[in-house]
């Protein structure tokens, strides 16, 4: 009993252990205490309850169910830390922002260059001989030499650099919208709407449970950021869906960029401890993403690997759905690229997804869902194996949603447009005129030529051909929800250095529904 509870308490206390000062923007000295003074932060004070407590009623209920005294149940006398409180839940304020921003742009400091150079491999990394033998003395029996954070130092669960802080802050913005979105889906539609899409009461409870998971994730990330002094509150959101299928289509895309955004940076974090806990939340998010694909009647996982994307890609995808944030919110350092749209996006609610019309999307933004097609062309509730996209554990789609060689028509904006919370961020690019479409999926980042470029009234149009590339034999790389962006060059990048492409991104990313 003592053993177990001291581990748990130690972990949580460490996660709650907050910095007394932070140099995130070189300007703030934020305290973790809920009573930090307003003058110490340019964004004002954000507080939430961090006091662990014992819920006596819950403990009594457990003891009563077990039929033994609470004092004999290990852990029952250990105080539990509360979750950060949610400001927006389900039905409360949603919709677009109609004000003007008082602050604009990403947070920034001196930039030392305009591009990260592409360098040869570090020679140290080609030296280890992987031949099955041990080459160095073992620190203790059964533990091979090496690894990071393996020498006995006590784990410190907090961000360690601007890179860490801004990455986890982006993650927190993502957790907050998911918490609101999952509640909002339940609040927006009634039981018969869900039943028509193939969802049972147990399925609806699963959505509720996934929302609860998000309160836990928001709490964890708030603590990794150093508690109230480093965290940011929940915002107000604006969603592009009108039907249940559209809602799940949007949500499977939103959770896709939430998950892929983390896979893009977690291996680069300075804090291995933060990466550890973050991964344990994103493993849950990955399950959510698959469940929303199932609710949308898509094949649950049509790929062998899930991809990672740069933070600025995730922020570009997320920002259009945040209408406003409280004035004490922390601002992000990431870039918002000009918006990219696929005009002939495959419509997952169609029996034949590519049979749709141009602009067959509902709402707005780079993760806009496709609209519900008319009866007869709609696969929701179409009880024919292979042609059904009602919610299900697996729906094999006899007509693939896309195919290599498909002409993909594109539209993109010029930079300089206000986006994101309070319209306070501005789209930008440092790229020259785009010439390529970058397709990021699974383990691969591949280019196709951008052709037939025209400009009408300040909006740009072009097309490309969907490539045919594989990770390994038998696994076409382009399937599921693809990240595509326009670039001015076709420099080769791979999973671990993809963010170096950012200075070459002219527009995007957009989420192409390849399968
Ligand atoms: C939802 O938000 C409202 C207003 O902020 C609050 O009064 C209510 O307690 C919240 N409900 C839940 C279930 O969190
Ligand atoms: C343990 O490893 C870390 C790097 O992972 C290093 O900074 C630290 O000095 C090491 N501590 C000891 C006691 O060797
Ligand atoms: C459920 O909501 C839909 C609109 O989303 C409406 O047409 C229908 O009448 C509602 N059904 C019930 C039982 O309230
Ligand atoms: C995607 O994967 C599904 C399931 O294996 C398959 O039926 C479909 O043809 C694939 N789509 C593409 C574009 O390769
Ligand atoms: C699906 O639609 C596309 C585009 O209209 C068409 O080329 C294709 O033949 C259709 N497939 C089937 C199986 O109907
Ligand atoms: C699609 O929308 C774009 C503008 O967003 C417009 O220029 C184009 O004509 C539309 N295409 C169709 C087929 O409606
Ligand atoms: C689907 O069709 C099968 C066979 O035609 C039938 O047994 C089943 O009840 C139908 N399911 C629904 C949900 O309508
Ligand atoms: C599943 O769909 C594929 C096409 O993507 C098809 O080749 C296969 O026969 C289908 N399998 C079943 C069991 O329906
Ligand atoms: C693209 O341009 C080529 C050559 O300029 C032309 O042959 C082709 O028809 C165009 N394609 C579309 C879809 O406009
Ligand atoms: C050009 O764009 C502006 C602003 O979006 C719009 O008001 C105007 O009607 C457009 N003109 C044409 C010819 O489409
Ligand atoms: C895709 O990624 C795999 C794994 O990194 C690599 O072996 C393969 O060459 C890549 N394929 C292409 C077309 O880039
Ligand atoms: C880059 O584009 C050029 C010109 O289109 C082409 O010759 C070259 O093969 C491409 N390289 C890669 C890595 O795709």
From TrEMBL:
Keywords: Signal. InterPro entries: Rds1. The keyword Signal applies. Transmembrane segments: none annotated. Residues 1-17 form the signal peptide. Pfam families: Ferritin_2. The keyword Iron does not apply. This is Protein rds1. It comes from Lachnellula hyalina.
């Amino acid at each position: 009993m003592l053993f177990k509870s001291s581990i748990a308490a130690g972990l949580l206390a460490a996660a709650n252990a907050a910095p007394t000062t932070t140099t995130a923007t070189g300007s703030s000295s934020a305290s973790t205490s809920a009573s930090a003074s307003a003058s110490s932060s340019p964004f004002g004070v954000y507080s939430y309850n961090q006091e662990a407590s014992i819920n006596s009623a819950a403990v009594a209920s457990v003891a009563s169910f077990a039929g033994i005294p609470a004092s004999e149940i290990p852990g029952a006398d250990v105080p539990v830390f509360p979750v950060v409180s949610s400001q927006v839940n389900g039905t409360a304020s949603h919709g677009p922002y109609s004000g003007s921003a008082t602050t604009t742009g990403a947070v920034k400091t001196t930039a030392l260059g305009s591009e990260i150079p592409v360098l040869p491999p570090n020679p140290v990394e080609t030296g280890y001989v992987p031949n099955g033998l041990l080459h160095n003395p073992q620190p203790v029996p059964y533990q091979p030499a090496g690894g990071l954070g393996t020498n006995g130092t006590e784990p410190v669960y907090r961000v360690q650099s601007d890179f860490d802080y801004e990455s986890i802050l982006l993650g927190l913005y993502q957790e907050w919208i998911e918490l609101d979105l999952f509640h909002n889906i339940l609040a927006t539609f009634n039981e018969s709407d869900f039943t028509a899409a193939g969802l049972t009461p147990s399925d609806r409870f699963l959505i509720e449970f996934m929302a609860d998971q998000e309160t836990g994730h928001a709490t964890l990330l708030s603590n990794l950021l150093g508690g109230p002094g480093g965290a940011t509150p929940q915002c107000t959101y604006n969603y592009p869906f009108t039907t249940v299928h559209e809602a799940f289509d949007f949500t499977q895309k939103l959770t896709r960029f939430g998950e892929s955004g983390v896979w893009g940076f977690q291996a680069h974090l300075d804090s291995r401890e933060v990466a550890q806990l973050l991964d344990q939340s994103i493993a849950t998010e990955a399950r959510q993403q698959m469940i929303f694909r199932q609710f949308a009647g898509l094949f649950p996982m049509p790929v062998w690997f899930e991809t990672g994307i740069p933070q600025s890609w995730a922020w570009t995808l997320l920002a259009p759905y945040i209408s406003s944030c409280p004035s004490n919110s922390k601002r992000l350092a990431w870039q918002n690229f000009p918006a990219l749209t696929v005009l002939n996006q495959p419509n997952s609610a169609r029996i034949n997804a590519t049979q749709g019309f141009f602009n067959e999307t509902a709402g707005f933004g780079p993760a806009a869902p496709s609209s519900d097609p008319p009866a007869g062309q709609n696969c929701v509730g179409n009880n024919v194996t292979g042609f059904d996209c009602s919610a299900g554990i697996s729906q094999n789609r006899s007509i693939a949603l896309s195919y290599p060689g498909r002409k993909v028509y594109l539209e993109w904006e010029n930079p300089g447009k206000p986006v994101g919370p309070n319209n306070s961020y501005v789209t930008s690019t440092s790229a020259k005129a785009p010439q390529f479409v970058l397709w990021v999926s699974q383990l691969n980042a591949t280019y196709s030529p951008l052709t037939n470029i025209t400009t009408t009234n300040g909006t740009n149009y072009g097309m490309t051909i969907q490539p045919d590339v594989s990770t390994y034999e038998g696994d076409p790389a382009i399937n599921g929800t693809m990240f595509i962006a326009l670039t001015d060059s076709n420099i080769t990048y791979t999973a671990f250095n993809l963010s170096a492409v950012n200075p070459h991104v002219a527009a995007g990313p957009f989420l192409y529904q390849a399968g």
